[in-house]
Design brief:
513 residues; alpha+beta; six-stranded antiparallel beta sheet; globular; binds flavin-adenine dinucleotide
């Protein structure tokens, strides 16, 4: 199949062979490897996506097709070696023609929004806020596409009570690996619906998602408190996420946390919270000596409306804070508009870009760790393997398993409460060994080996494995179902080959140009 023939097959929009487009689609945020597609498609409609996939499916030789959202994967998951990348997101540098097929459509009464699969979450937020509404569950960073995060899970500090983003979707429109354009939901084509959510792009390309909305709060009180003792820190986090199960009880709206293993949080890119106006002088807190040189920061928010009297919000927050056992005097508070809070990481991005340290290799490791072993993980990794060096933010926060739908494709630990541990490191190559990609990648392997040897059964979030047996182990008792779904919805293994789960059933050299 010659992709240029796609024009004759009725693909309306442009198939680009421009080297700049091909170059963009060859790399991702991880900057850990390069894989060139033969061409990049900029679809003008869901039908364009369907025609391309159908052409790949029906051609004698076949060729790989990968949807690419904003390319914020780490390990080439959105790449398509020698195939066609469908550029779903309309972002700077990849803008093509008139842009995306349709704008977000909000239904106020029904409280949902229909969005194009390549839409960025920042745009979803802006569009829904115009109606006083907003999605319930977020990622920390909003310059990610809807299709990209729904292919994983989409998590942030709201997940403990709203579940991940994949638990907040009413309906999807999907192009399967056979090129069929189908609508799916709990009621209709439900197997496809559950397969695609958390499905790592293996079963279909999301062209439209219907996302649940709630009334948008106007303001956020954002609080950080410090701990020197890990078990006190996790006990408080677990207490806070247990409040979702007590109807009518006051609770925080967002619960996250991070680990401070060296000079302090000022070197974290995640936010400018600890700003010069709000400095953290850990040594001046009179805090007990940090446990093994490590401190822990609990990060929580309370949403409210502009009309709420400040003494009411003070009272609600203080009554919740009173139940916690953080280091006295270590509470830092700021109030800001809801949109600004949700978009907080973008500020840090702009800062890092201005210093030239955004476009660097990112050997990130994201793990789901069961609650029963999180203390062992702390001892072995935060206080052990990391050797008091962070090289980037280290997030840690718990979630409730009952907010995750077992029918989806995503894999989580088999415990009621589990933690996300996200080591979001940058290889800055400053000349120090600990800043090199090789050092950080070795450390990641060491962490995984430690878990294995200590019998801590972790699951990778945004998983990366290179051999099928590793994927079989990753999915555990879900592998059979995952495999069956692949045979049903993408039997020729055309889609998202960059995930390295299934061998393509064709050789890339069979796609002539
Ligand atoms: C700075 C930063 C912060 C992040 N913060 C968070 C966070 O707080 N929470 C969180 O959960 N994740 C977070 N992530 C991870 C992020 O959610 C995933 O990497 C996500 O896949 C990125 O979306 P994308 O649009 O860039 O996807 P891409 O990298 O373009 O694609 C990822 C995978 O999804 C597939 N895919 C893309 N679009 C579609 C589609 N329309 N239909 C089907 N499959 C598709 C691709 O083929 C690929 O396999 C973060 C990443 C970065 C770089």
């Amino acid at each position: 199949m010659d992709p240029t023939e796609l024009f004759f097959l009725g693909v309306d929009s442009r198939l680009s062979f421009k080297s700049s487009d091909v170059e963009t689609a060859s790399v991702d945020f991880g900057m850990l490897g390069k894989a060139k597609p033969r061409a990049v498609l900029h679809p003008a409609s869901a039908d364009d996506v369907a025609r391309l996939v159908k052409a790949a499916y029906e051609s004698a030789n076949g060729f790989p097709v990968s949807a690419r959202g904003h390319g914020h994967s780490i390990n080439g998951q959105a790449q398509a070696v020698n195939g066609v990348v469908i550029q779903m997101s309309d972002s700077e540098g990849t803008r093509f023609g008139s842009g995306k097929p349709f704008l977000p459509q909000v239904k106020e009464k029904e409280k949902y929004v229909d969005v194009w699969g390549g839409e960025l979450w920042i745009q979803v937020l802006k569009s829904t806020l115009e109606h006083g509404l907003a999605p319930k569950s977020w990622t920390d960073y909003l310059y990610l596409s809807v299709g990209g995060t729904l292919s994983n899970a989409g998590i942030s500090g709201q997940a403990f009570h709203h579940g991940p983003q994949i638990s907040n979707v009413h309906e999807l429109e999907v192009v399967t690996g056979k090129g069929e354009l189908l609508i799916c939901s709990e009621e209709k084509n439900s197997e496809l619906f559950h397969a695609v959510l958390g499905g790592l792009g293996q079963f279909g390309i999301i062209t439209r998602a219907r996302i649940a909305l709630e009334a948008a709060p106007q303001k956020v009180r954002w609080i950080r408190v410090l701990y020197s003792d890990f078990s006190t820190f996790t006990r408080d986090q677990e207490y806070l996420i247990s409040l979702h199960a007590q109807p009518g009880s006051q609770k925080f709206d967002y619960v996250e946390g991070f680990v401070i293993v060296n000079d302090g949080p000022t070197n974290t890119w995640r936010s400018s919270f600890f700003s010069p106006r709000n400095p953290v002088k850990i040594n001046s807190l009179g805090a007990p000596a940090a446990d093994g040189g490590v401190l822990y920061c609990l990060e929580i928010t309370k949403n409210y409306d502009g009309s709420t009297a400040s003494d009411i919000i003070d009272k609600e927050v203080n009554s919740l804070l009173k139940k916690l056992d953080f280091i006295p005097g270590s509470a830092f508070t700021t109030d800001l508009p809801y949109e600004e809070f949700l978009d907080r990481v973008h500020k840090a991005e702009l800062r890092l870009r201005s210093k030239g340290v955004w476009d660097v290799p990112h050997p990130w490791l994201n793990l789901f760790v069961p609650k029963s072993r999180i203390a062992d993980f702390d001892k072995g990794v935060f206080k052990g393997i990391l050797g008091n060096q962070a090289n980037g933010p280290i997030l840690i926060y718990p979630m409730n398993k009952n907010k995750w739908d077992r029918r989806s494709s995503v894999v989580i630990p088999d415990e009621e409460v589990f933690y996300l541990v996200a080591l979001l490191r940058s290889a800055l190559n400053t000349g120090e060994e600990i800043d090199t990609l090789e050092y950080l990648e070795n450390q990641n392997r060491q962490i995984l080996r430690f878990c294995d040897e200590a019998g801590i059964i972790v699951k990778q979030y945004l998983p990366h494995h290179t051999r099928q047996q590793e994927w079989v182990d990753h999915f555990g008792d879900k592998w059979g179902q995952f495999y069956q779904r692949k045979m049903e919805f993408d039997p020729r293994h055309i889609l998202a080959t960059g995930q390295l789960i299934f061998e393509p059933s064709f050789t890339s050299s069979t796609m002539p140009l």
